[in-house]
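Predict the structure of Ca-activated chloride channel family protein.
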Amino acid sequence: MIQYDEKIYFYLLIIIPVIVVLFLLLLVWKKRTQKKFANTDLLKRLTPNRSYNKGGIKLVVFILALALLIIGLVNPKIGTKLETVKREGVDIVFAVDVSKSMLAEDIAPNRLEKAKRLVSEIINQLASDRIGIIAYAGQAYPQLPITTDYGAAKMFLQSMNTDMLTSQGTAIDQAIELATTYYDDAEQTNRVLFIISDGEDHSEGSTIDAVEDAADEGIIIYTIGVGKEKGAPIPIKRNGILESLKKDSQGETVITKLNESVLVDIASEGDGQYIDGSNTDAAVEFIKEELLKMDKKEFEAKQFAEYKDQFQWFIGGALLLLFLDIFILDRKTSWLKKLNLFNEKRNE
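Done. Here is the predicted structure for Ca-activated chloride channel family protein.
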């Protein structure tokens, strides 16, 4: 397991291609200037000991040293000891609506991105709870099983989009049914399901049945609404550029609206509450307080308990390369010249 102390220093790697470009431009300028001064044969006679290859070698050595120095600043750490630790928490599953209606931009930047931000902010408030993620549209798909790896959860969360499921629609009942399979601990006193959606449901008849079945298994269902009741069209974009708006079979522009009543009914039947997701901070704070009230279940989890700094190896390698760079001169080295490593023997 690897951790990084200061990931922001990775941005310094952008300097490397800039240096390469500047070096190539410098070579072009030098060649043009030399041609104005003298032809190639005359230059070779005037500078018989000048190496035409060591400039590139010095550049490679310098770039490698710079890259190692930057990685050293990032300070990668390697986990050296895996321990089983006791943790207390609640099992939480997030069911995120990824249907096309979630592309509506009545809430910035759009409903889906807002939903992902809400889930990410909730995860930031958790300490030792186990979490899972489900994506659903016309069908439900297990995105991430129950885990304590919050980093992996955020990675999977950010990869979610409206194209990941071919079956379109909004089948909340399937998401709830799939969520019931996530809770693998029969002794867990509190199981929580958060449904983040705009409330459009194409399976209303069976959704309440699914909610009741989940409630019988002790699952508390909270719903988070994203979107506006006045609605908005569904943009169809390619490479971030708006091409058209989604239309129905009659050629009319589809207006998708937040259906709070469906989400309120689901939360009510699921012994939870409906939460307005338009204000991220308020929604996250409310959820944090609700989770704190719940009884925690103790469970075991494996995690790396000790991490050792590795920056010294990279800094040491960088200093060694910079030291070697001092001895790489632009002129030919006499003993290397005899070996002709760089094919620099002049034709007599």
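The two ends are 59 Å apart (CA to CA).
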